[in-house]
Amino acid sequence: MSEHNRIDRRTLLKIMGSAGATAVVSSACGTAGAESGAGLTGGKFDKTVALATGGPGGNQNWQPGDAVKFLPPQQIPTSSAASDTMAALPKEKLLDIFSKMNASRKWETAMKDLFVGGKDGLYGAFHTYVGEEAMANGVMAALNPDDFIASTHRGHGHLIAKGGELNRMSAEIFFKETGYNKGYGGSMHILDMSKGIMGANGIVGASYYLAAGAAIRGKVLGSTQVAVAFFGDGAAASPYYFSAVRSCANYKVPVIFVNENNFQYMGVPMAKTAPTKYISEYTKGLDLPHHLVDGNDVTAVFSATKAAVEWARSGKGPVVIEGITYRWYDHAGFAGGRVGVDGAYGLPYRSDDEVKQWISRDPVARYKTWLLSKKLASEGELAKIESDTQAAVEASIAFARQSKDPDPETGVLNTHFSGAVAATQFYNRSGLTRPTT
Amino acid sequence: MAKKTYNYAQIEAVALEMRKNKDMVFFYEYETPVATLPTGEILDLVKEFGSVRTSGGGWAIDESWIVGAAIGVATAGSIAIARTPSMATIYAIEYIYNQAGKLRSMTGGQASMPFGLWQGGGSRTRGSAGQHTEVGQEALYANLPGVKVVVPSNAYDAKGLLIAAIRDPDPVIYYDYPEVKSGDQPDVPDDAYEVPLGKAVIRQPGKDLTLVAWAPATVDVKRALPDIAKAGISAEVIDPRTLKPLDVDTLVASVKKTRRLLVVDHGHYTNGFGSHVIAEVVQAVPGVKAKKIAFPDVPGPGAAGMMAWLRPDAPKIVDAAVQMMKG
């Protein structure tokens, strides 16, 4: 992003009153234990926080800056059950997860470097998932290839974890004709129905109904397919969220609602907008399982999702999973980001210390450490995967660069199943020909 | 053949297509999809197709869910029809605006969208006021890229357009206006048939004036026709049936002949679909006389007298036709 955009955004946030949000405020919830991998079923929680009783909004026990205190590394309990569940997977699968987590991290980091310092003139929205890779990969490891996912505007990690192809993704970021969407969509709209990916989506809270429809269709077809709706903490405020969870619970629709709680929507801290401590408390009045997990621990996410998938496939209806995680960069674009440096700093709505602490909880590095400590893979094997994924990322960028731009006049195609939007609408009635200038 | 009601024709259209497409779903709220013939034959979609394919036997009052879930089914690859009541147009429109009409394009043609919205309409009649009298939201939908809009005005067209909408791979908004359901209805064949999308019909040939109306406005036009004839005016009456894609060719051919275009629109005056009809025709046939009668930009009032005064009814249509013939 340009310096101009960066300054505007920061100024705007200051005007909006987020400037004070960088202060770290001590809070009772900072040390509360969200047990890694623990399933909290039946709407019951071990700990809840009382609703706010005053102030401008939000939960007064849940302050701006609390993200820095949430789940400090030394207080994340290691769930041996989750670890054992994950360790039971075949080695090939464990390495595949490692490969995809690395591909996700390296691809987005490469794109960050291109947007910030590259010569490719990249444009358009780009919402990074860096820091949240354990969520997508833990969830996807528990799904079948024919299960569906409906993603968010922060969807790259979901796509890669479900098998999205880097070449076509890179080409779409470059808006080339070889991209997933032939240049029509860009980052927020990549879709691959052949892999059950119902697409990233530019509308916050759009995943719920798309996933629900796919899951209902599964019931109609007599399959045991399930669908996952990813959503952020911000999207949980959408009325569609309660609507979908409520109806899925009532009609036993097999949707797994996966909340990636990164503590902030755009530049607004969750402390200002959420009346509860956890997003998964919103629906606890409904009789369905809620799992609250450390979203930076892929074993915890996998273990919870495995249980959720078993529940949903057996016809019992939906499940909510909330993973506590963090995005290393700004909401969109790369304000505060630099080439070769992980994380965005100097953002007005969070502290640099908070970012650094979360980077120290890197989910990719953590999975690597786990694989090695469990002796499930060797240093050499993992190093090869790391270099292979880096090479694949670089090859995908070369592919994008070499691809052609879409023909401008194709913009009237693909709105309908067949045919172009009437050419009469912009020049004459005689058919689709390039307008003369 | 027993005379079918408008409602029977619609339910029959859905039943025929659900028999053909075993994965097609029909989601609705409270309008239980049951219809009866005078012979006593009952069509009951829930009974015939089971509750999974038919809203679990009636979904909760949540039109966003009904429409959104249907669009999810369609995105995943199966035909889905959502039926929502007249007060719910705006609940339904968000997901069509942001998703149904745009996913195919945004994904470079990858996303399928065999989705249909069976949208209830209101009527410009006394006793309900505002929210339950709204007509003309077809213009809102017609403004959205990627969606098609049909507005049948009799039972034959209703069945044929609904089947065409179900079979169309793109999202189609099918309007169901109560005022067109009463009165004499044409015979409705038992078999499945399509009234093709984008094809207008000339209800009455004429040479002096092209009179265009769809859905509830056709009721007023029918009432006006005897007096228009008495005034010595030969009116060519066209029902577009599909608003998008609009059959501009049929309209243009008629106005080239008559040189006069009168559009009757029960929608509100500003940006009602009638304005688009006029825009299309006058661009293609310069110099013609064109006039639109629409419902003013006010919510429909409840009192009978106020509503009647505002409605673009037969006396107003006759008057406009007579005025257009002068000079």
Secondary structure: elements and pairs:
The complex is a heterodimer of chains A (437) and B (327).
Chain A: H1 3-16, E1 39-40, H2 80-87, H3 91-117, H4 133-140, E2 148-150, H5 156-161, H6 166-173, H7 207-221, E3 227-232, H8 239-251, E4 255-261, E5 264-265, E6 268-269, H9 270-273, E7 290-294, H10 298-313, E8 319-324, H11 352-359, H12 363-373, H13 379-402
Parallel strand pairs in A: 2-3, 3-4, 4-8, 7-8
Antiparallel strand pairs in A: 1-7, 5-6
Chain B: H1 6-20, E1 25-27, E2 34-36, E3 42-44, H2 45-49, H3 63-76, E4 80-84, H4 89-100, H5 103-106, E5 115-120, H6 138-142, E6 148-150, H7 155-167, E7 172-176, E8 201-204, E9 209-213, H8 216-230, E10 235-239, E11 242-244, H9 248-258, E12 260-268, H10 273-284, E13 289-295, H11 304-310, H12 314-325
Parallel strand pairs in B: 1-4, 4-5, 5-7, 6-7, 9-10, 9-12, 12-13
Antiparallel strand pairs in B: 2-3, 6-11, 8-10
Helix pairs in contact in B: 1-7, 3-4, 8-12, 9-10
Characterize the largest beta sheet of chain B: strand count, sense, and whether it forms a barrel.
6 strands, mixed
CATH fold call of chain A: Rossmann fold
Using the coordinates above, name the CATH class of the largest domain in chain B. Alpha Beta
Q: Helical amount among residues of chain B, as a percent range?
A: 25-40%
Percentage of residues in strands of chain B:
15-25%
- Which spans of chain A of ≥5 residues are poorly predicted at pLDDT below 50? 1-57, 72-76, 431-437
* Pattern of helices and strands of chain B: HEEEHHEHHEHEHEEEHEEHEHEHH
Give the overall shape of chain B: globular
Q: Give unreliable regions of chain B as ranges.
A: none
CATH-defined superfamily of chain A = Thiamin diphosphate (ThDP)-binding fold, Pyr/PP domains
Biggest β-sheet: strands ordered side by side in the sheet of chain B: 1-4-5-7-6-11
Largest interface summary: A-B, 51 and 44 residues
